[in-house]
Structure formats: C-alpha cells, structure tokens
Amino acid sequence: MAISHFRKLQVGYNAKCKMQNVKYHLRCLECGKTIQDRYTNTCPEGHNSLLRTVYKTKRIRKLSGEGMFNYIDWLPVEETLPINASPVTYKSEGFGKELGLKNLYISFSGYWPEKGVFMKTCTFKELEAPPTFLRAKESGSSGKILVVPSAGNTSRAFAEVASMTGMPVVVIVPKSCIHRMWTTTENHDSIFLISVDGDYSDAIAISKEIVKIEGLIEEGGARNVARRDGMGVVELEAAFFMKVLPDYYFQAVGSGTGAIAAWETFIRLIEDGRFGWKMPKIVISQNLPFAPMFSAWQEGRAEIIADKDMRNAEEAIKEMYADVLSTRNPPYSIKGGVYDMLGHSKGKIYGVTNEECRIAEKLFESEEGIDLVTAASVAVASLIKAVDEGFVKKEDRILLNITGGGYKRLREDYKMYEIEERMEIKSLDQLALDEIEREVMEFVKGL
Ligand SMILES: *Cc1c(COP(=O)(O)O)cnc(C)c1O
Ligand SMILES: [Zn+2]
User: Fold this and answer.
1) Which one, of 107, 134, 118, lies nearest residue 37 by Cα?
2) Are residues 160 and 197 in the same domain?
3) Whose CA is nearest to atom 8 of ligand 1?
C-alpha cells in the first residue's frame, strides 16, 4: 500500500539513463580508482578514504522546478521526489550591519515561508534524506530498508521523507533526543523508531549491529555521497544567488560532514568556471566543552586522541548547548575529511562557549527576525569571534550557513506529530538483537 503510494509520487523517471548509469561515478581519493556506484560507501580495495562523486556535467544547471532537485546534475540520483525542500540565500541587512560587515550572505535551511523556504524538519539534514532514499533504491539496494542512527535531526529528516513517500526507514536515537522525533505528517506507518539508553555514539554502535539483519542496509553517514552532495545544495544555491564564490564560509559542525560537502561543492564550482577560481576559507565551529576537532586542530594534529581531545566526554556532552554536535568519531583524519578540508581551504576552527551561543542567538534573532536551532547559534557566535579578532574584514564576502531554524515559526502553521517508539533498547545483547529482528520483520510485513 505504502509502496504504491510512493509510485504515484514519482516523477522524472528515466529508465534509459538508469541502465547506462553514465551520469556519475565514484572515485576513491586514496587510489584514484573509478568505481561504479552500487550504494558503495567504501573503496572496494579497502582504502580508508572518502569516495567522491565525479559528475559528467561540469557546468551545473539550475532547473526551474521547486526544491533541491533543481540541482539534480550534481546529485547522485536519476529520479526526483516531489519535495520542495531547498535552502535560501539572502544578503543580510540587520545582523551584517551590527557586525560592520558589508557583504554578509546568509544561507538559511529551515522553515521561513516569508523568505520562501519550507523545510519542515527545520534543518539542513532535510537535504540529505531525499537523495539518500533514491540512491539506495537506484543503485541496487532496492527493497532494502535504510537504518539511520542520529542525535535526532537526521532521523527526523529521514522520518519526514519516509512518511511523505511511504519509503520505509529504521531510525535510532538516544532516549534523551526522543523529543526531536516528530513530523508534520500524521502517518508514521513507514517509520520504525528505536530509542537507546545512551548517547549518539551508542545509537551508532547499535545501528552497526542491526544492519546485519537481512533486508536492512547501513545508511553510511559521512561516507554516503548522497548525503554530502545533498548538503552541497546549500553552496549551489548560494553560488547562483551571489554569482561568485564567497571569501569565507562559516558553519557549526559535529561530524564536519556538511563542511566537507561545502568544500567538495566549492571544488566543483571552481571547475565549472563561472563563479571564480578562489577556494573559500572554510571556518567551522564546535560547542565547548565537547570539541574534539577544535582541540586536535589547536595542537596541529591530524589525529583525535580520546585522552586529550575528549576528556570526560559523557559529562562534557551533557553540558553542551547544542548537543546535536556531539559526534565522537568525526571523519577528521580520513583522506578527504575535515583535516584535509581545513588545510586545502586555509580554514580554521573556533571553539564556542554556551554563553557565547546564547548572546549570538539573541542578537541574530532580533536582527534577522527568525528563531535559530541551537547548533546554528554556534556558527553565529563563531562569526562574531572572527570579526572581533579581525580574521574577517568588513568588505569580505561571507557566507554564513544557518543550518537550522524556524521551529517557532513552523508551530504557527503546522501541528507536530510525535513519532511513537516501537522499541526501547537498554543494552545490546543477543536477546535484544533477536527481538529487534522479530519486530522489524513484523514491521516489513505490515508495509
Ligand atoms: C547536524 C547539524 C549540524 C552539524 O553538521 P555536521 O555535518 O554533522 O557537522 C549543524 N547544524 C545543525 C542544525 C545540524 O542538525
Ligand atoms: Zn581506493
């Protein structure tokens, strides 16, 4: 039933293209090998490197439809979904003036109809879910169910798309993040929500076990090119609006996947040739006291050392203002990851305190007139620091990625339907695994 509902929604299907699969291929950044995409997230030769998409089209088109699929040239999918999610870029007046910046551009991912942006899960994670579902379906994992662990924002984005399309998903979130699990759609038949007694890392660990069950497939996180290229739509939208690449790009990070995506998209845009040739400096920020990449980068290290960079992790994570940024295993050292990105773009990392976040958030909200999610205020605070330090100058073209906002605005227009958990896991043993398998089978039968 749910599946046929999805079929009805499909548009733009092109069987010929799909068969030849010539639109893009993957490249391993370690060995340089060209790889045909079969939902491949690691090099078949076993290299610990990110794979990157190489698109046949070097000059990106912006199509005239609605939403992120206007940029399908640089998304690793053939079909589209009728989803109007897309970020918006605009030139800041109030906040830019307050900071003395003449060329501050804001990319906003969230819900803000007055600005023409309708992302109903309110963060840029909503750009990752649609191409990931399609990529799984098209690249040979059709019929398998994606398993997505997260601190809440990613799982909610996947749940919303699952609910809209009827494509099933298993989402795993820490108990403390369960309040983030809602959608604006009422039907949750295609969502299997599991809560975990632990933090984000425990959700990831459990996901690693669950994907061994027949019929389930690991979504892939930072290694999944559909997620990265989906987020790259932020930079594409900005480039078409600004007509030229920014000098600086600011974003709050947990894993850094969004910033890697920005870097990869800037590389493609430079190759395109119409947006300038200068790589923007990528400035990322983490929320103290839990800021492992900031800590390692301060010491010039390409490796994160748990004893140094993640002391008292559990306590530190509990103290964070923006706990969605609490990733313990970010793709920092991996080839093509955050460390490489910072070096190549001559970037920088800021550590931002909770107090700095709150001050930044108030100022932004009063000047720009929209509410922020906590993670976005980390980026705003880092920009204030960069201005104070003189790292950016008043004439510089700056792109500030507001990765989430508009919850309060959304509540005025929509009802939020809480997703009920189907299982709660306290500890992962064989018994729990068997039970999960049974329950998931039941879920699949009911679809
Ligand atoms: C996930 C998230 C981030 C951080 O993104 P990463 O790519 O994981 O570093 C920033 N802001 C918001 C709102 C998020 O949901
Ligand atoms: Zn390789």
Assistant:
1) 134
2) yes
3) 255
How many A from CA of 28 to the centre of ligand 2? Answer: 5
Nearest CA to ligand 1 atom 5: 253
Q: 428 C-alpha to center of ligand 1: Å?
A: 27
Q: Which ligand is nearest to the CA of 404?
A: 1
pTM here is 0.94
- The type of residue at 291 is A
Q: Position 238: which residue type?
A: A
Establish whether residue 382 lines the binding site of ligand 1, counting it when its CB lies within 6 angstroms of any ligand atom: no
DSSP assignment letter at 265? H
Domain contains 393: yes
Taking only the tens place, the pLDDT of each residue in 235-266 is 999 999 999 999 999 999 999 999 999 999 99
Shortest-distance ligand to the CA of residue 329: 1
Same domain, 363 and 245: yes
**Does residue 131 sit within a domain?**
no
H or E element that contains 424 = strand 423-425
**Which residues 6+ apart lie within 8 Å of 221 measured at CB?**
204, 227, 255, 257
CATH code of the domain in which 175 resides: 3.40.50.1100
Residues 322, 430, single domain; the answer is: no
Whether 153 lines ligand 1, by a CB cut-off of 6 Å, is: yes
pLDDT digits (tens, 9 = 90+) for 192-227: 999 999 888 889 989 999 998 888 999 999 999 999
Token code pair at residue 167: 């494509």
Number of structural domains in the chain: 2
Strand 281-287, strand 191-196: pairing: unpaired
Q: Which amino acid is at 221?
A: G
